[in-house]
Specification:
By secondary structure, the chain is mainly beta. The chain contains 1 helix and 11 strands.
Length: 260
């Protein structure tokens, strides 16, 4: 019985370790090919080759991604991408009902829904022994942009007046909603033991984009409804709703380069 339990425990441990990382001797990403890191956040490879215009897509479901390579050979126009997804725009408010019956006020417009926050980019730790970039490598860890807030609904128009009752007022416009905050840019750590100073190739052969996402725009206020007209007294135009506020931009990530 003890042997069976021990065997099951070892099997579970083996499966867990196999799912915890990708381990290959050599990985070649062909021209214009996209290699996606899935189900894990760690890739360990002895030799990594990225041919021209190839891409590695980091796992967006993991906050931190790790790439370990003894040798990395990078061609032209290559990218490693883990940027945050843009937030969805907020839903517009529905318009208030216009009164067909006389002497009644128009119904107010509905308030809009706020924009979704932009998603944070993943963090990348890239550990290398040797790196050769013949062309260029761009690491894109920009935060996602926040969604715009929805526009407020228009107020309904007031009904017309009669000799015995005044005309209806226009409905109040709905409020515009706030935009979503921008996502955070990712943190980049690059450690290359046998590289020359990586600062010398930054912005040329090696570029990092890890800006915070833009905040979403606030939605427009809904217009007030039109006043009804009547022989005794005209109604009043509905007031305009409030404007939605623009959201904050996401925080820019940091870049750490070392040769330890």
């Amino acid at each position: 019985m003890f042997r069976i339990v021990a065997l099951i425990s070892l099997l579970v441990l083996f499966v867990s370790l196999s799912e915890a990382q990708i381990r290959v001797t050599k990985l070649v990403v062909e021209p214009k090919e996209q290699y996606r890191i899935m189900t894990t956040d760690i890739m360990v490879v002895d030799t990594l080759v990225m041919r021209d215009s190839s891409s590695i897509i980091l796992n967006p479901l993991k906050k931190d991604n790790f790439i370990h390579a003894k040798f990395a050979y990078i061609g032209s126009g290559c990218t490693i991408t883990g940027h945050g997804r843009n937030g969805l725009h907020g839903k517009h408010g529905e318009s208030g009902q216009t009164q067909s019956a006389p002497c009644r006020n128009g119904l107010p417009g509905k308030d809009a829904l706020p924009g979704e926050h932009g998603k944070d980019a993943v963090n990348l730790s890239f550990y290398l022994t040797n790196l050769r970039i013949s062309g260029s490598l761009v690491i894109n860890l920009n935060g996602g942009d926040g969604g715009n807030g929805g526009d407020g609904g228009r107020g309904g128009d007031g009904g017309s007046g009669t000799r015995v009752c005044p005309a209806g007022d226009g409905g109040i416009g709905g409020n515009g909603a706030a935009g979503g905050d921008g996502g955070r840019g990712g943190v980049v750590n690059i450690n290359c033991k046998q590289c020359s100073d990586l600062h010398l190739i930054m912005g040329n052969k090696l570029s990092v984009k890890n800006y915070g996402g833009f905040g979403g725009l606030g939605g427009d206020a809904g217009m007030g409804g039109q006043a009804g007209l009547g022989p005794v007294r005209d109604g009043k135009n509905g007031q305009r709703g409030n404007e939605g506020q623009r959201a904050a931009q996401g925080k820019t990530g940091t870049v750490n380069l070392s040769r330890e």
